[in-house]
Amino acid sequence: MQFPLQIRREPKTNLFIFGMHGPADSKAWAIKDQIETLDSAKRYMLNIAKHCLAEEAGMAAPNVRQRVRGLQSLVRKNARLARSRWRGELSPLSLTELKRLSCDLGLSIASGEVLLLNGKWYVTHAGLLRIAQRNRCSGMRTAVDKGLSDPASHRWVFKATVYKSLHSRGFVGYGDADPSNVSSMVHGAEMRVAETRAVNRALRKAYGIGLCSVEELGWAPRSEVPAPPDQCKASANANNGHQNGQPRLRDRLCLLIRQYQLDAGLVKAYAADYCGTATLRDASRDQVETFINDLAERAAKDREALICQLNSYTKQQEVAP
């Protein structure tokens, strides 16, 4: 004997209700239990998903708020240090640019990651390394370019490649250094300066930083701070002193003599004759600077002709009592 089975779904509870016209059918009740079990599992999974989403939202919100507070604190610290350190040079436009750099790149003045020179902001090697570390840079590689380097004249050219990820093809940057484009304080370390410049250029390309780095400058320019009158007078009378952060004339002359392998005594005699003075020490700074520029130009164009002219001063030294 068969008993018809009636199944209906309640609209509010969303559950299945079974009705039968005869005695209880074991198979029908088994189907009813399975359907109720599926509905319970579905409600349980939905509750777990809602709980997980709520936990993720609660964890993400504090992280975002903490990051925003950290950036706001960095902007305030940088502005305070900039006002105290570069009081005469800091303009409203420079301060606005500093705030943008603090928010976008996270650079810190206290850590020496950004500097203000002659009214412009420059990133340092330490700042670029911090940016690479923060972005989880995969690695970098440096190599000497032997074709462009000249160890005899202390000229070095490096190639640096920065890999942002394991599958990155790399961002390439070149850096050069020789005694003419580095500070006198790092003479003899041109190789290390060239490598640092190459790494800086590669890092700036990799992370889209248009800010120039301090190490890429020919020499570090000095801030325009008024000097005492006695110091100004002393620097004006000194023929071989620094001017506007440029290397001394004596260093430039020694570099030319080393680079083109010239005789120092003959060059001094030629310089005195060129300046119209008894000795090179008696010449003014402008005269010496003009002579050095002319000597560099002639040595680059025709070194043999310059050596012949210098050799003519050998006879004059022999004839002189």
Description:
Helix 1 runs antiparallel to helix 2, helix 3 packs across helix 4 (190-206) and helix 7 (264-275) crosses helix 9. The longest helix is centred in the first third of the chain and has 60 residues, at 26-85. The model is unreliable at 20-24 and 220-246 (pLDDT under 50). The protein has helices at 26-85, 92-105, 125-134, 190-206, 229-237, 249-259, 264-275, 285-301, 303-319; strands spanning 5-9, 16-20, 114-117, 120-123, 139-144, 156-163, 171-177. With 321 residues, the protein is an alpha+beta fold. The chain has nine helices and seven strands. The chain starts with a strand and ends with a helix. The chain has three domains: 5-66, no CATH class; 86-216, Double Stranded RNA Binding Domain (2-Layer Sandwich); 229-319, no CATH class. The relative contact order is 0.06. The strands form three sheets. Strands 5-6-7 form a three-stranded antiparallel beta sheet. Strands 1-2 form a two-stranded antiparallel ribbon. A two-stranded antiparallel sheet has the order 3-4.
In short:
The chain is of the alpha+beta class.
Largest sheet: 3 strands, antiparallel
Domain module tally:
3
User: Helicity, in percent?
Assistant: 40-55%
List the secondary-structure elements in sequence, H or E: EEHHEEHEEEHHHHHH
What is the count of β-strands? 7
| CATH topology term of the largest domain | Double Stranded RNA Binding Domain
Question: Segments where pLDDT lies below 50 for 5+ residues?
Answer: 20-24, 220-246
**Mean pLDDT, all residues:** 77
